[in-house]
Amino acid sequence: MPRPRKWRKVCCLPTTSRFGPLETCASPAEPIQMTVDEYETIRLIDLEGMNQEACANHMNIARTTVQGIYLEARRKLALALVEGRILYIAGGDYHLCDGQSKCCRQGGCQRERMQQLAQQPNQWQTWGEIHEQ
What we know:
Blueprint: E1 8-10, E2 18-19, E3 32-34, H1 36-47, H2 52-59, H3 63-83, E4 87-89, E5 94-96, H4 110-119, H5 127-132
Parallel strand pairs: 1-5, 3-4
Antiparallel strand pairs: 2-4
């Protein structure tokens, strides 16, 4: 009997779950599905600049597990870009962060960052506001 999978901690779900070519005729090839935990690994390593060890600690999984997830996520991104296929983000073995863990206060938690931004007054003007002036 195989060992049960360990749930991976994810800060928040992506704001957009479908990506693909802008042309109206998308490739007829089968779309690619990236799991939420693969998305989180890409976000933490490539966007937040964490190494695999820090990412593993953040997600509460082993570093070798992060390595496998990361390799698979990058392969899926490459396929989507090179072959012009649609990429969906859904599913996986994850649970959402409650924003209360120790790593949330150390800068890697997107949910914590989004809550802080929501509490700040909007300092940015929209494109329309700039051109009305």
